[in-house]
Specification:
Strand content: 15-25%
Shape: globular
Oligomer: single chain
């Protein structure tokens, strides 16, 4: 009996990027466990992946190319060969290009796997070379990234491990225990060292229950709180004037802007008492080594971008950056010297590309956008838009088009794959090689392939090699091996990779970037912000160019940006839908609905697997405050209908005072077919973009709830 342990890395769109050990016996993976030697993830896996071998060997896996033989959406498919599948795809695409041009083809992807060579950008070179429509992928952190870069540039910010030195920690729209759980031990250590932990969230989450202070806030009003904090800091002289004078830009204009944002104004918007706003601000501003960790949820409303702008200004106002453990944490991904241009190949693009945002897939497919040429073929990989995108019914109408040729590469017959004409089998992380960055720590990781691919599954890299060959492309770039792609994926001459070799990384599985140790990490003690001015820009110079999406999210394409005027100073943009901004709508739909990440699912990953579904609940559960439930005749466990003018879905009620009055919580990730009740929460979500970076507004909606 041959047994070995293979070191790899979790593939998912999660900040933790855990180091994983897979036990392989006679060529079969029999167990996965966390790597106890990893300094950040320390041997523990979350409920999503602690039985990952069951995902790999699930009897629901797609293991062979399949062709639709029944009506779209019926899930009726027959097995075909890879040659048949590739001939069909290449033939259809060549005909579409000849008749309508390559813009009639739309690739659709996101981060179903987060690997550098198999993840976000794996298909970009092929579709850029074809001149297909650009998929602008702004699901997560796009608005925050635009705002962050406008303020402090692409800095990794505070090392997550440096939190042990923090003395005042604000987790803002961040349920760490469910979505960034390996950061929690560092926060716990800080608490043992005397730090105070504050959680700002509409819901008393798992994380908030363990905080020293949970501050409930009305959804989408975080910007009002951040602006009021700056108002108080400036008015009460709690600023660090030396740091401001040396390392910031636009303070005088910011001070004028903040005058209107009184604690009273913020209290009316947020629902937070004035005394609490004052207390929070004074404690934050007067505690050295104060740090803010923002979650992705902070951008998911109309003013999400300007909210991040305001929060990003706070550390410089009080000089928090001078201290180890002080400042702001968003995405440490900026520290990794990834060769993004080499991954995306924007140089292959024709001069003019058409851009369609992924959040507008439904209107793009149904003719609502009056596209010329219309979308005639859709290729989906690393994504499940039927489960995760707004206007769910409209997407379904588009996918049901008989004249739309749809190709889906997947592990399972997802809600999206059921509408495909061709479904292609994709490998899981245990069956492929990859290199991994992290957006939650500073360790570069390597994923060694643990087992041979099951059935006829192929990695994304191999898929696009096969497609390039079928399309008659002869450029050697498209036929590089995975090893060559991994070698080319990073700038190995970067100082942060000094002393790190690919061979050693592959053997060990992870290596920390060559940067200051967490115990001395203070990258902006003396300014040195990666902005045009080298300073924290309260007044942003990038605003002159108007609204933009970071090219990383749009296949490297810099043209056809939104370009709407952007105020160079942070300000508060209220939600599109809440009782104060839309009183007439609130008369019909008086409750604010938010759709956070599920504890058991990774977006829609695992929405079909028994262990995770059992953890999340067989049916969608919706959290309501008892005082909202009682007048509607709703008790615990009551079947309910959640609805607004865009749609409705059915669920079961969970009653708890952990959620604010007037707020409803429906975690995302459930599948329609496993839900057994038709549409899910994204039947209700609005198609509107936030103010910056074309971020979606997942949690900016009014609904009502009734007994089903």
């Amino acid at each position: 009996m041959a047994r070995e342990v293979v070191i790899g890395a979790c593939p998912h769109d999660c900040p933790d990027t855990c180091s994983i050990l897979t036990t392989v016996e006679d060529g079969k993976a029999i167990a996965v466990r966390g790597n106890p030697d990893h300094p950040f993830t320390k041997g523990r896996l979350c409920v999503k992946v602690n039985d990952y071998q069951n995902r790999v060997y699930s009897d629901q896996r797609v293991l062979y190319p399949m062709k639709r033989v029944g009506p779209k959406g019926s899930g009726q498919f027959a097995r075909i060969t890879w040659d048949e599948a590739l001939d069909e795809i290449a033939g259809r695409w060549k005909a579409i290009i000849a008749e309508s041009g390559a813009k009639a083809i739309l690739p659709y992807s996101y981060l179903g796997t987060q690997g550098i060579i198999n993840g976000l950008n794996v298909g970009d070179p092929l579709f850029n070379k074809l001149g297909a429509t650009v998929c602008e992928r702004t699901f997560c952190d796009s608005g925050a990234c635009t705002a962050y870069m406008m303020t402090i540039g692409h800095t990794p910010g505070v090392d997550p491990e440096s939190f042990v030195h923090s003395k005042y920690i604000i987790l803002w729209a961040c349920n760490t225990l469910s979505t960034n759980s390996h950061h929690w031990p560092f926060i716990e250590q800080a608490k043992r060292n005397g730090a105070k932990l504050v959680v700002i969230d509409p819901v008393r989450t798992r994380t908030a229950r363990l905080a020293d202070w949970h501050i409930p806030i009305q959804p989408g009003t975080d910007g009002a709180l951040a602006m009021a904090m700056m108002h108080i800091i400036i008015k009460e002289g709690l600023t660090d004037r030396d740091y401001i004078d040396k390392h910031t830009l636009g303070f005088d204009e910011l001070a004028v802007r903040c005058e209107a944002y009184t604690p009273e104004f913020a209290s009316a918007e947020t629902g937070i008492p004035v005394e609490d706003i004052l207390k929070l601000t004074r404690e934050y501003a007067t505690t050295p080594a104060a740090v803010v960790r923002i979650g992705v949820a902070v951008e998911r409303h109309a003013g999400g971008g300007q909210t991040v702008r305001a929060i990003a200004c706070l550390p410089a106002l009080i000089g928090a950056w001078k201290h180890v453990g002080g400042g702001l944490l968003q995405l440490p991904i900026w520290a990794f010297p990834v060769n993004w241009a080499g991954l995306m190949r924007p140089d292959l693009q024709p001069e003019s590309m058409r851009v369609i945002n992924s959040w507008r897939l439904g209107p793009a497919l149904t003719g609502e956008m009056s596209l010329d040429p219309p979308i005639r073929s859709l290729m989906v990989y690393n994504a499940n838009p039927m489960a995760m995108v707004s206007q769910q019914q409209v997407i379904e109408q588009g996918l049901a088009r008989e004249d739309l040729f749809t190709v889906v590469s997947e592990h399972f017959f997802t809600d999206t794959a059921r509408y495909a004409d061709i479904v292609l089998p994709a490998t899981t992380q245990l069956e492929q090689e990859d290199i991994m960055f992290s957006w939650g720590h500073l360790y570069l990781s390597y994923n060694n392939q643990a087992i041979a691919p099951l059935g006829e599954a192929v990695s994304n890299t191999e898929l696009f090699r096969r497609l390039a060959k079928a399309l008659g492309i002869d450029d050697p770039f498209f036929f590089r091996s995975d090893e060559e792609m991994i070698e080319a994926s990073m700038d190995w001459s970067s100082p942060v990779l000094a002393g790190i070799t690919l061979d050693e990384l592959k053997q060990k599985g992870y290596m920390r970037l060559t940067m200051d140790a967490a115990d001395s990490w203070a990258p902006h003690r003396d300014g040195n912000f990666p902005t045009a001015s080298g300073k924290c820009e309260f007044k942003s110079s990038l605003a002159e160019g108007g609204n933009f999406v970071v090219p990383l999210f749009r296949q490297g394409y810099g043209g056809d940006q939104a370009g709407e005027p952007v105020d160079p100073l942070p300000h508060y943009v209220p939600p599109n839908e809440n009782p104060r901004t839309a009183p007439a709508l609130a008369e019909r739909f008086p409750l604010s609905l938010i759709s956070p990440k599920s504890h058991a699912f990774m977006n829609s990953n695992y929405g079909n697997l028994p262990a995770q579904v059992a953890q999340a609940g067989e049916q969608q559960a919706v959290l309501l405050h008892p005082e909202d439930a009682a007048p509607r005749g709703i008790g615990a466990g009551t079947p309910i209908r959640v609805f607004n003018e865009r749609g409705a879905f059915e669920a079961f009620a969970t009653l708890s005072a952990d959620v604010m009055r007037g707020v409803v919580v429906a975690p995302a990730g459930f599948w329609q077919r496993s839900n057994q009740r038709g549409p899910t929460v994204h039947a209700l979500t609005p198609p509107a973009f936030a103010d910056l970076g074309r971020a979606p507004t997942f949690s900016d909606m009014l609904v009502d709830v009734a007994a089903a």
